[in-house]
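Incident log, structure service

09:12 report received: a user says their structure output differs between two submissions of the same chain.
09:20 pulled the input from the user's history:
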Amino acid sequence: MLESTAAETVATLVAGIVLIAGLVSVVVPVLPGSLLVIVALLVWAVLLGGPTVWAVSLAGVMLALLGWSASTVLTGRVLRRESIPRGPILVALAAGLVGLIVLPPLGLFLGFALGLFCAEYFRRERDWRAAGSSSLQALRAVGIGLLVEFFCAGVAVSLFVIGAVIHLVF
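09:34 re-ran on a clean worker, output below:
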């Protein structure tokens, strides 16, 4: 636990910056965003201590875990329902990374969508309607999962802000 108010303020500011990086990483997956949020909240709680900080941190960690797992479950359920194996998803991820390098940050999403469609097109024996339908369902699932994860991580960061103000001011 930190002893001075200045050290607590610096630790809180650094944690806030890492939390913002985590939020950005949920949308632009350069780093694992929810994991970054969880680690930042736990390190902040260990450094500052106190009941308010721990309560806020644990609530934020639970929200980030909920969003992260809900995103994974929602996306996985649709991918199984549409019978999309891991191969097209890996092709889509590779195409998304290439797109990120070629046209940052929009290229990530365009590359992922195009890679998924192309992989599904060849997997479904060049049936563009079936490939388009399954790709659209998969993209919708990924989008909904991303929104759920971002919302939960955003609420966790909001709790951090409230907890930081309470801890540092009162």
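09:41 both user submissions now match this output. Likely a transient worker issue. Closing.
09:42 reviewer note: The chain has six helices and no strands. The helical segments are 5-27, 33-48, 51-81, 86-102, 106-123, 128-169.
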